[in-house]
Design goal:
The protein is of the alpha/beta class. Helix 1 links the parallel strand 1 and strand 2. The protein has a 7-stranded mixed beta sheet with strand order 6-5-12-13-14-11-15, with helices on one face. Strands 8-2-1-9-18-17 form a 6-stranded mixed beta sheet, with helices on one face.
């Protein structure tokens, strides 16, 4: 079997790796080709990964130190939330054995939090957790792996141009597809980086602001910053002023975005879409790499494993609903700020199909604790929506 992945961004690279895993799962011989347009820029600002993607990537990296050096990767033991909710000034969502009860680390402070993290066996090792990385460097690393055939070519019509059994289209959002709008309070971001080395920081930072929240990503040779907000509530000028004051760095990019997912990921006879062509909701919890992994797995269970397309579509939809509402669940708990953004975010309704479930699970005033409280998070993981 031959699979061609179109695109070499995060979605394309993760899809290609998952193809290798699926070949092994179904015990078949297969070839994966990554076909990409080198003129399409890939983001140079760092981002965080998550546990499912880390487990997948680790299977195909021979030298961890080489991977770290070439991708700018640093250890990510979790996400540090600050100013979320109204009861606590900070919370920590660990990668390993997450979630943890808040009381588990109540005796620690941000300065000695790693002592808490190390209590979990393997927590101070790279592949046992997750990592931060530079997407462009990550793409270059994956394209250099011997497992893939790589072709530089601008593909316009994959079904007519590519000779293969399955096509995974990761070229970015398309006007030719029908999308469902996700419920989310954000629609704009400012991102940048500077040569401040903070590689000993062991987690991503998610800090609530009056206008939304910021992320801080420590990479091997620099630090990346993002400022998430709603441009219908906060002006670009005000957001920029706050961003510069907080991080003492000038913006590199301004991004206006939609939150969405495609209604049907299957296109034509041989193609399914992934990456930003499939979906983008928001960067909280570094969910995208986990989503890309799952989409490829479900789709290949259809193309290789004989399951129905309805099976894949329903499971992918189920996954997107859960992520959308987990984000809303966190916003509903508010922040320390009483501002127009947070008043708007706290009052967004859960999707009608799951509204009653999430209202029962939601708790007022405890912010990111919903991600670290077993009593809340476990029921969320078990929810069956379709």
């Amino acid at each position: 079997m031959k699979i061609v992945v179109v695109g070499a961004g995060n979605g394309g690279c993760i899809s290609a790796l998952q193809c290798l895993k699926s070949f092994k799962q179904f015990d078949i011989e297969g070839e994966v080709e990554i076909c990409y347009d080198p003129n399409i820029a890939i983001e140079k600002v760092g981002q965080g990964g998550n546990r499912p993607a880390t487990k997948l990537i680790s299977k195909y990296v021979e030298d961890c130190n080489d991977f770290v050096e070439k991708t700018g990767a640093t250890l990510k033991t979790g996400i540090f939330y600050e100013n979320w909710g109204t009861e606590n000034k900070w919370n920590f969502h660990p990668v390993l054995k997450a979630p943890r009860l808040v009381d588990d680390y109540s005796g620690y402070t941000p300065d000695n939090l790693f002592e808490y993290v190390k209590k979990t066996e393997g927590a101070d090792t790279f592949w046992a957790n997750a990592f931060h990385y530079i997407p462009k460097k990550f793409s270059e690393y994956i394209l250099g792996l011997k497992q893939f055939k790589v072709t530089e070519k601008n593909i316009v019509e994959p079904e007519s141009e590519l000779d293969c059994d399955v096509i995974i289209d990761c070229r970015g959002k398309s006007d030719s597809l029908t999308y469902e709008k996700a419920i989310n309070p954000l629609n704009a971001a400012i991102i940048s980086r500077k040569d401040v080395i903070n590689a000993n920081s062991l987690w991503s930072g998610h800090i609530a602001t009056p206008n939304g929240w910021t992320f801080e990503i420590p990479n091997l040779n620099d630090t990346s910053y993002g400022y998430m907000y709603n441009s219908d509530i906060t002006s670009k000028e005000d957001a920029t002023s706050d961003f510069v004051e907080r991080f003492e760095v000038e913006p590199m990019h301004y991004i206006d975005f939609d939150s969405y997912w495609v209604k049907d990921p299957f296109v034509g006879e041989r193609t399914f879409v992934n990456g930003n062509r499939h979906s983008f909701v928001e960067p909280m919890e570094a969910s995208s790499t986990s989503v890309y992994t799952a989409i490829t797995r479900y789709a290949l269970e259809t193309f290789i494993g004989g399951k129905s397309k309805e099976y894949a579509v329903n499971n992918i939809l189920h996954m997107m609903w859960k992520w959308e509402n987990l984000f809303l669940w966190n916003y509903h708990s508010g922040s320390i700020y009483d501002t127009p953004f947070w008043n708007y975010a706290k009052n967004l309704e859960f999707r009608e199909e799951v509204r009653d479930i999430f209202k029962v699970l939601s708790k007022d005033g405890n912010g990111a604790e919903v991600l670290t409280n077993n009593d809340n998070y476990k029921p969320w993981r078990k929810i069956k929506l379709v």
